[in-house]
Amino acid sequence: MALRGAWQFQKLVVSYCNWGGSSRGIRAFMESELPALIEKNPQLEVATELSRGQHPYLKGIYRNRNERVVCVKNMDPEQVLLNATRLRNSLGRKVVKLRTRHVTKHPSVQGTWTTAVKF
């Protein structure tokens, strides 16, 4: 995703095993879907890592120096492409848990409104 006109996703690292069965889908992804992904996204740098005996994963590296790792063990090439697209479309920010269901600058003094009001 672009923030102020600059893509935040810099590099996609594809780690796989050339022998293991859990890497079958990512090997098919690299043959069929990855060239089209690189062609559609010229701003994206793609690196492949051969790590024998390990499960496959996708690692996204962002401009703000954050990394996201997604395990793609036993996934089809379409599912791997979906995960790579999700990595590309995210900003790379850390996930923040909200304390309440609503966010406001001026919280109510009386409390949150509910439908179960008892008089």
From TrEMBL:
Family: Belongs to the mitochondrion-specific ribosomal protein mL43 family.
SMART domains linked to this entry: L51_S25_CI-B8
Primary location: mitochondrion
Any matching Pfam family: L51_S25_CI-B8
SUPFAM superfamilies: Thioredoxin-like
Record's subcellular location: Mitochondrion
Protein name per the record: Large ribosomal subunit protein mL43
Annotated keywords: Mitochondrion, Ribonucleoprotein, Ribosomal protein
Ranges where the Ribosomal protein/NADH dehydrogenase domain occurs: 18-91
Domain of life: Eukaryota
Lineage: Eukaryota, Viridiplantae, Streptophyta, Embryophyta, Tracheophyta
